[in-house]
Structure to design on (226 residues):
Protein backbone atom coordinates (compact mmCIF):
# COMPACT_ATOMS: atom_id res chain seq x y z
CA UNK A 1 0.00 0.00 0.00
CA UNK A 2 0.90 3.66 -0.20
CA UNK A 3 3.23 5.13 2.39
CA UNK A 4 2.46 8.10 4.57
CA UNK A 5 4.98 9.32 7.12
CA UNK A 6 4.64 11.54 10.14
CA UNK A 7 7.28 13.41 12.07
CA UNK A 8 7.92 13.44 14.93
CA UNK A 9 6.55 10.14 16.21
CA UNK A 10 6.57 11.40 19.76
CA UNK A 11 6.94 14.83 21.34
CA UNK A 12 6.92 16.12 24.88
CA UNK A 13 6.59 19.84 25.39
CA UNK A 14 5.90 22.38 28.05
CA UNK A 15 2.53 24.04 28.39
CA UNK A 16 2.32 27.21 26.32
CA UNK A 17 4.72 26.13 23.58
CA UNK A 18 3.81 25.33 19.99
CA UNK A 19 4.38 22.00 18.31
CA UNK A 20 4.51 21.28 14.60
CA UNK A 21 3.69 17.86 13.18
CA UNK A 22 4.50 16.98 9.59
CA UNK A 23 2.63 14.56 7.38
CA UNK A 24 4.11 13.42 4.08
CA UNK A 25 2.80 11.17 1.34
CA UNK A 26 5.90 9.44 0.06
CA UNK A 27 4.80 7.77 -3.15
CA UNK A 28 1.83 9.71 -4.42
CA UNK A 29 0.60 13.27 -4.64
CA UNK A 30 -2.22 14.02 -2.27
CA UNK A 31 -4.41 16.99 -2.97
CA UNK A 32 -6.32 16.17 0.20
CA UNK A 33 -4.99 15.16 3.57
CA UNK A 34 -6.86 14.67 6.81
CA UNK A 35 -5.94 15.19 10.45
CA UNK A 36 -7.41 13.03 13.21
CA UNK A 37 -6.87 12.77 16.93
CA UNK A 38 -7.46 9.81 19.17
CA UNK A 39 -7.85 9.88 22.93
CA UNK A 40 -7.10 6.69 24.88
CA UNK A 41 -9.62 3.94 24.26
CA UNK A 42 -11.64 6.15 21.96
CA UNK A 43 -12.25 6.39 18.25
CA UNK A 44 -10.33 8.49 15.77
CA UNK A 45 -12.03 11.85 15.41
CA UNK A 46 -11.63 13.92 12.27
CA UNK A 47 -10.25 17.36 13.12
CA UNK A 48 -9.86 18.94 9.72
CA UNK A 49 -9.51 18.39 6.00
CA UNK A 50 -6.39 19.87 4.47
CA UNK A 51 -6.59 20.90 0.82
CA UNK A 52 -3.45 21.75 -1.13
CA UNK A 53 -3.30 25.44 -1.92
CA UNK A 54 -6.38 26.44 0.02
CA UNK A 55 -7.58 26.84 3.58
CA UNK A 56 -8.29 23.82 5.68
CA UNK A 57 -11.85 22.84 6.56
CA UNK A 58 -12.30 22.30 10.27
CA UNK A 59 -14.83 20.08 11.96
CA UNK A 60 -17.28 21.51 14.43
CA UNK A 61 -15.70 22.15 17.79
CA UNK A 62 -12.11 22.28 16.51
CA UNK A 63 -10.44 25.64 17.03
CA UNK A 64 -8.79 26.69 13.79
CA UNK A 65 -6.63 29.28 15.53
CA UNK A 66 -5.28 26.66 17.88
CA UNK A 67 -4.71 23.90 15.34
CA UNK A 68 -3.07 25.56 12.37
CA UNK A 69 -2.97 23.48 9.19
CA UNK A 70 -0.82 24.22 6.19
CA UNK A 71 -0.84 22.16 2.99
CA UNK A 72 1.82 23.90 0.99
CA UNK A 73 2.63 21.11 -1.43
CA UNK A 74 1.05 17.97 -2.85
CA UNK A 75 3.08 15.77 -0.52
CA UNK A 76 3.23 17.73 2.72
CA UNK A 77 0.70 18.93 5.27
CA UNK A 78 1.59 20.32 8.69
CA UNK A 79 -0.43 20.63 11.86
CA UNK A 80 0.76 23.16 14.43
CA UNK A 81 -0.69 22.96 17.91
CA UNK A 82 -0.30 26.51 19.19
CA UNK A 83 0.05 27.34 22.88
CA UNK A 84 -0.34 23.71 23.80
CA UNK A 85 -2.02 22.75 27.06
CA UNK A 86 -2.15 19.41 28.88
CA UNK A 87 -5.63 18.72 27.51
CA UNK A 88 -4.12 18.77 24.00
CA UNK A 89 -2.15 15.66 24.87
CA UNK A 90 -3.35 13.03 22.44
CA UNK A 91 -2.43 10.82 19.52
CA UNK A 92 -2.55 12.78 16.27
CA UNK A 93 -2.84 10.87 13.00
CA UNK A 94 -2.83 12.15 9.46
CA UNK A 95 -4.04 10.46 6.33
CA UNK A 96 -3.64 11.12 2.64
CA UNK A 97 -6.01 10.30 -0.15
CA UNK A 98 -4.60 9.39 -3.55
CA UNK A 99 -6.34 11.10 -6.48
CA UNK A 100 -7.04 7.78 -8.20
CA UNK A 101 -8.77 6.12 -5.21
CA UNK A 102 -11.07 8.64 -3.63
CA UNK A 103 -12.59 6.14 -1.20
CA UNK A 104 -9.25 5.18 0.27
CA UNK A 105 -7.17 6.98 2.84
CA UNK A 106 -3.68 5.89 3.79
CA UNK A 107 -2.74 6.68 7.34
CA UNK A 108 0.50 7.83 8.86
CA UNK A 109 1.94 6.12 11.92
CA UNK A 110 0.72 8.87 14.25
CA UNK A 111 2.34 11.34 16.63
CA UNK A 112 2.03 11.03 20.37
CA UNK A 113 1.90 14.49 21.95
CA UNK A 114 2.37 14.93 25.67
CA UNK A 115 2.03 18.43 27.09
CA UNK A 116 3.40 18.89 30.57
CA UNK B 1 -23.66 11.73 18.35
CA UNK B 2 -21.85 8.52 17.40
CA UNK B 3 -22.90 7.79 13.84
CA UNK B 4 -20.85 4.62 13.58
CA UNK B 5 -20.98 2.21 16.50
CA UNK B 6 -19.18 -0.94 17.42
CA UNK B 7 -21.05 -2.26 20.40
CA UNK B 8 -18.53 -4.91 21.37
CA UNK B 9 -15.41 -3.30 22.82
CA UNK B 10 -13.63 -6.64 22.88
CA UNK B 11 -13.83 -10.12 21.41
CA UNK B 12 -11.81 -13.30 22.04
CA UNK B 13 -11.71 -16.08 19.47
CA UNK B 14 -9.89 -19.39 19.34
CA UNK B 15 -7.22 -19.69 16.67
CA UNK B 16 -8.61 -21.30 13.52
CA UNK B 17 -12.18 -20.30 14.26
CA UNK B 18 -14.17 -17.51 12.66
CA UNK B 19 -14.01 -13.98 14.05
CA UNK B 20 -17.08 -11.83 13.46
CA UNK B 21 -16.87 -8.12 14.14
CA UNK B 22 -20.01 -6.03 13.97
CA UNK B 23 -20.72 -2.41 13.19
CA UNK B 24 -23.91 -0.35 13.09
CA UNK B 25 -24.46 3.06 11.60
CA UNK B 26 -27.19 5.67 11.66
CA UNK B 27 -26.41 7.97 8.72
CA UNK B 28 -28.16 6.75 5.57
CA UNK B 29 -25.93 9.06 3.50
CA UNK B 30 -22.88 6.87 4.04
CA UNK B 31 -22.01 5.38 0.66
CA UNK B 32 -18.81 3.48 1.33
CA UNK B 33 -17.64 1.41 4.27
CA UNK B 34 -14.19 0.30 5.31
CA UNK B 35 -12.51 -1.82 7.94
CA UNK B 36 -9.17 -0.87 9.45
CA UNK B 37 -6.82 -2.75 11.72
CA UNK B 38 -4.82 -0.83 14.29
CA UNK B 39 -1.99 -1.63 16.66
CA UNK B 40 -1.20 0.62 19.65
CA UNK B 41 0.71 3.79 18.80
CA UNK B 42 0.39 3.12 15.06
CA UNK B 43 -1.86 4.44 12.34
CA UNK B 44 -4.75 2.33 11.04
CA UNK B 45 -4.07 -0.13 8.24
CA UNK B 46 -6.71 -0.61 5.56
CA UNK B 47 -8.16 -4.12 5.38
CA UNK B 48 -11.22 -4.26 3.15
CA UNK B 49 -14.03 -2.04 1.92
CA UNK B 50 -17.49 -2.26 0.43
CA UNK B 51 -19.63 0.07 -1.60
CA UNK B 52 -23.17 0.72 -0.44
CA UNK B 53 -24.49 -0.81 -3.66
CA UNK B 54 -23.06 -4.20 -2.73
CA UNK B 55 -23.84 -6.60 0.06
CA UNK B 56 -20.65 -8.64 0.17
CA UNK B 57 -16.99 -8.26 -0.60
CA UNK B 58 -14.35 -10.92 -0.08
CA UNK B 59 -10.57 -10.70 0.02
CA UNK B 60 -8.72 -13.78 1.16
CA UNK B 61 -9.57 -14.53 4.77
CA UNK B 62 -11.59 -11.32 5.11
CA UNK B 63 -15.20 -10.88 4.07
CA UNK B 64 -17.35 -7.84 4.70
CA UNK B 65 -21.13 -8.05 4.66
CA UNK B 66 -23.42 -5.06 4.37
CA UNK B 67 -27.11 -5.02 5.31
CA UNK B 68 -28.36 -1.60 4.28
CA UNK B 69 -31.89 -2.06 5.53
CA UNK B 70 -30.55 -2.84 9.00
CA UNK B 71 -27.71 -0.29 8.70
CA UNK B 72 -25.35 -3.00 9.76
CA UNK B 73 -22.06 -4.35 8.50
CA UNK B 74 -19.82 -7.10 9.70
CA UNK B 75 -16.28 -8.33 9.11
CA UNK B 76 -15.63 -12.04 9.04
CA UNK B 77 -12.10 -13.37 9.45
CA UNK B 78 -11.63 -17.06 8.82
CA UNK B 79 -9.55 -18.84 9.85
CA UNK B 80 -8.45 -16.51 12.65
CA UNK B 81 -4.72 -16.31 13.27
CA UNK B 82 -2.71 -14.97 16.24
CA UNK B 83 -1.46 -12.10 14.07
CA UNK B 84 -5.03 -10.91 13.72
CA UNK B 85 -5.01 -9.73 17.33
CA UNK B 86 -5.48 -5.96 17.14
CA UNK B 87 -8.12 -3.27 17.41
CA UNK B 88 -10.49 -3.19 14.45
CA UNK B 89 -12.30 -0.04 13.40
CA UNK B 90 -15.13 0.16 10.97
CA UNK B 91 -15.46 3.45 9.12
CA UNK B 92 -17.96 5.02 6.78
CA UNK B 93 -17.67 7.68 4.11
CA UNK B 94 -20.12 10.46 3.38
CA UNK B 95 -19.21 13.59 1.42
CA UNK B 96 -15.66 12.25 1.21
CA UNK B 97 -15.28 12.34 5.00
CA UNK B 98 -14.39 9.28 7.02
CA UNK B 99 -16.25 8.58 10.28
CA UNK B 100 -14.80 5.91 12.52
CA UNK B 101 -16.50 3.55 14.89
CA UNK B 102 -15.32 3.09 18.45
CA UNK B 103 -13.27 -0.01 17.76
CA UNK B 104 -13.30 -3.65 18.85
CA UNK B 105 -10.25 -5.26 20.38
CA UNK B 106 -9.87 -8.73 18.90
CA UNK B 107 -7.75 -11.29 20.73
CA UNK B 108 -6.96 -14.58 19.06
CA UNK B 109 -6.28 -17.33 21.56
CA UNK B 110 -3.64 -19.86 20.39
Amino acid sequence: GAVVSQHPSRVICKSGTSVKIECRSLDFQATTMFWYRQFPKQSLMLMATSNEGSKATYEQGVEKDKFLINHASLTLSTLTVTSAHPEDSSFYICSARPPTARETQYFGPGTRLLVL
Amino acid sequence: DQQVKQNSPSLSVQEGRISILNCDYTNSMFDYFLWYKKYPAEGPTFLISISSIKDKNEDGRFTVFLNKSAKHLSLHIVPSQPGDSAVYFCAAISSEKLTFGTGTRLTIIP
